[in-house]
Amino acid sequence: MPRTTERIAESLKRAGLVITARLVREPGEGAGRTVATFLARSGRNSFRSSRRAP
Known about the structure:
20% helix; alpha+beta; two-stranded antiparallel ribbon
């Protein structure tokens, strides 16, 4: 069975998101339990400006 963080990453990808960064802190690395942080964005051109050049 895949780890929980891997399942979350796969769910984000299936939802059409692109994972830019992933930070996982395992117990014993300053965390009492596994902590996962993801930076994801839409797979579409969501950052394209909607403004037109003058």
